UniProtKB/TrEMBL annotation:
InterPro entries: Phage_lambda_portal. Residues 499-512 have a biased composition (Acidic residues). This is Phage portal protein, lambda family. Residues 488-498 have a biased composition (Low complexity). GO terms for biological process: virion assembly. It holds the Pfam family Phage_portal_2. Residues 475-520 are annotated as: Disordered. GO terms for molecular function: structural molecule activity.
């Protein structure tokens, strides 16, 4: 951009200032031309995009978003299904821990202790550890966040480990506690030190929405050390609290509800009068007749299927409701928007598989499962499972049940059901044979403890040998074709897969799974 006459005038007395003006104007013009989203004009008029922080935005809208989403989940079937799909895929039967200290005796002891503790871990005495996972995940998705409080118990309570977990809804956080506090600060009920570390959570004594509790205790709140709380929510920005996962489509869900109600009312209105019988005089005069029912009573309220009679009526005129299309297309488009907002495949949200085939549903599920995998390992396990395991080992150590307060752990999320189980099983087999995956990893992917599974296999084989039984599923005794192992192969399991240990027909069948797949 060339300099203006004003720039030249300034340059005569202050050339550096004139140069800075020209350069600044060029930078501004480059910015506005380079990003259409930053342009100002008629097309972007009314676009409000404040630069407020995440905490400021959540502080203003968080409670209302939470209340509206809960109302939708209670009353809107699509919102309820979206939450259920996410929870079922993230948690399923439960994310299972496995002690991994390397000391087999210690690991078995810790695993057995944890298994007994899971049945008694709920402070309400209703759910086990995996049921709590489902409840916590549901609150995280529906309300945006949830709090889990460590409750230490007395040894005399008779628990396997003197520890229980109390699940608290996000409403227990006192959002009015905000501002400076000594050298630190309070953000919507969460206390931070000067370097941003969480120190305490200010919790109400009772749920603020509980009429009895609010009346008895007012809205009192008190600080609980952050070490006693596991705060589970999705961090989309550097924020202190979470928002409901369906927040982007709250209006879309409400609009779809309103549309369906309006469509239903329109249809009911059109169907209220089936026919009206008119008299000749009234029809000619064009005056609204006095309408009565079959018993002669005056009709002042219409209902579907009504046949009304004008006095002295001789001519009958049938009502013909107008046929309007587009309802199905609008609803399908709206549900696509809602599924995108919840990050759930449309087919899982609606159960409508009419528009998909095997390849398309598999491709869609791959991306969804990658998202679920990220939520499990980057959100739920670090924010909930890891703190609970730490609390458990500390409580068990303090009670003298294990020798150390720290025990390494490995987590096994629930397995994904295969679209084609046979192909997935063959893929796992190839991975094990090629050395890219271990048998323990494959078993862990199924949501089970590899050590327990291998021990169970060994025990089963020993029992079969003691009883003299040979099953078709035993690779030590039977080939893949179902033929009995002969010679050295019966005593040497490794020889069972070598060519030449069976008849030629069996060897022909013992091809590489990948080649067999290509032949199919």
């Amino acid at each position: 951009m060339s300099a203006t006459w004003f720039d030249h005038a300034i340059a005569k007395v202050a050339p550096r200032m004139a140069a800075r003006r020209v350069m600044a104007r060029q930078a501004f013009e480059t910015l506005t031309r380079g990003y259409d989203g930053a342009a100002r004009g008629r097309r972007t008029e009314g676009w409000r995009a404040p630069g407020s922080s995440a905490d400021t935005e959540i502080g203003v809208a968080g409670a209302l978003l939470r209340d509206r989403m809960r109302d939708l989940v209670r009353n809107n079937p699509h919102a309820a299904k979206a939450v259920a799909v996410l929870v079922n895929n993230i948690i399923g039967a439960g994310i299972m821990p496995r002690a991994a200290s390397g000391d087999e005796t210690l690991d078995r002891r810790v695993d057995d202790l944890f298994e007994r503790w899971t049945a008694e871990c709920d402070a309400d005495g209703q759910l086990d550890f995996y049921g709590l996972q489902t409840l916590i995940c549901r609150e995280m998705v529906e309300a945006g966040e949830v709090l889990v409080r460590r409750r230490l118990r007395r040894t005399s309570d008779g628990l396997p480990v003197p520890l229980q977990l109390q699940v608290l809804e996000a409403d227990f956080l006192d959002a009015t506690k905000s501002g400076a506090l000594g050298a630190g600060r309070l953000v919507q009920g969460i206390e931070f030190d000067p370097v941003g570390k969480r120190l305490a959570y200010w919790l109400h004594v009772e749920h603020p929405g509980d009429a009895y509790g609010a009346l008895q205790n007012g809205l009192q709140s008190r600080p609980v050390p952050a070490s006693e709380i596991a705060h589970v929510y999705e961090k989309q920005r550097t924020q202190a609290r979470g928002v409901p996962w369906g927040a982007p489509v709250i209006r879309s869900l409400r609009d779809l509800d309103d549309y369906e109600v309006a469509e239903l009312v329109r249809k009911k209105t059109e169907a209220c009068v089936t026919a009206i019988v008119f008299g000749d005089d009234e029809a000619q005069q064009g005056i609204a007749p006095s309408v009565v029912d079959a018993d002669g009573n005056r009709v002042e309220q219409f209902e579907p299927g009504l046949i009304a009679y004008a006095r002295g009526g001789k001519d009958i005129r049938f009502n013909q409701p107008s046929a309007t299309g587009g309802y199905g297309e609008y609803k399908r488009a709206s549900l696509h928007t809602i599924s995108a907002g919840f990050r759930v495949p449309y087919e899982l949200l609606t159960g409508d598989l009419s528009q998909v085939n095997y390849s398309s549903i598999r491709a869609g599920l791959v991306e969804f499962r990658r998202q679920i995998d990220a939520v499990q390992w980057q959100l739920f396990i670090p924010m909930f499972c890891a703190p609970v395991w730490r609390w458990f080992t500390e409580a068990a150590w303090a009670a003298g049940q294990i020798p150390s307060p720290t025990v390494p752990v490995e987590w096994s999320p629930p397995k994904f059901e295969a679209v084609d189980p046979q192909k997935d099983a063959m893929a796992n087999l190839l991975s094990i044979r090629s050395g890219t995956m271990t048998l323990a990893e494959v078993i862990a992917k199924q949501g089970r403890n590899p050590d327990a599974v291998l021990a169970e296999i060994a025990a089963t084989n020993a029992k079969l040998d003691a009883l003299g039984l040979v099953l078709d599923s035993d690779p030590r005794r039977v080939t893949k074709t179902g033929s009995a192992q002969t010679g050295d192969s019966a005593s040497d399991p490794a020889a069972a897969d070598e060519p030449g240990t069976d008849d030629p027909a069996a060897d022909a069948d013992e091809t590489d799974p990948a080649q067999a797949d290509q032949q199919d």
